[in-house]
Amino acid sequence: MSKEIVLDIETRNTFQDVGGWNHDKLKISLIGVYFYETDTYETFLEEDLPGLWPRLEHADRIIGYNQKGFDNPVMNNYYAGDLNQIPQCDILELIHKSLGYRVKLDSVAKATLGKGKIGHGLQAVEYWKEGKIKELAEYCLMDVKVTKEVYEFAKENGFVKFEDRLGNVVEIPIEVAPEIEVKQSINLTMPF
After folding, report:
1. Spacing of C-alpha 151 from chain mean position
2. pTM beyond 0.85
3. Would residue 188 count as lying in a domain?
4. In this structure, is residue 59 part of a structural domain?
5. Structural domain tally of the chain?
């Protein structure tokens, strides 16, 4: 049974709020996660994060979209170790390697799956500021679901699609399913 995990984070603030491109000043509002092992979606608020870290540490791999460029740097503000040490599948990174430039998840989802995201990241910040935690969780978990479905499509087909600026649907070859090494389970969150 796979112990892969798909995740996405939402923040309480934006780069504009913190005066520029500084991950260290962003605060997590909520993390949405899909666990293949249990076939469940869960959310974690900032105060719940200590319960998430051991589950990530024991994962076969973390799957995300811009995981290494955004999610991990922000989560590492809270995590005692370095989440980049856990095996990763960053779909955006794979797309960038194939194309030479970045493509939004919404564009990939619409062309690949025929459906897109239900909103945008700034909307998630507004949900947090307005205390709409239920709406925030629904938004984040929909991003997790879309990322999971894009990942599964790529795993099965060896490509994803997006619509270019001319309106043409373009296939992007990506390899998301390399052999996963069986690793020894370790606990990286011990307070040493």
Report:
1. 11
2. yes
3. no
4. yes
5. 1
What is the model's pLDDT at position 192?
A: 41
- At 69-121, the pLDDT tens digits run 999 999 999 999 899 999 999 999 999 999 989 999 989 999 999 887 666 66
| Per-residue pLDDT tens digits for 129-166 | 899 999 999 999 999 999 999 999 999 999 999 988 88
Q: Which of 89, 129, 68 is nearest to 6 (CA)?
A: 89
Does residue 182 form part of some domain?
A: no
Which CATH number do you get for residue 154? 3.30.420.10
User: Which range marks the domain in which residue 45 is found?
Assistant: 4-173
| Inter-residue contact 109 to 116 (CB < 8 Å) | yes
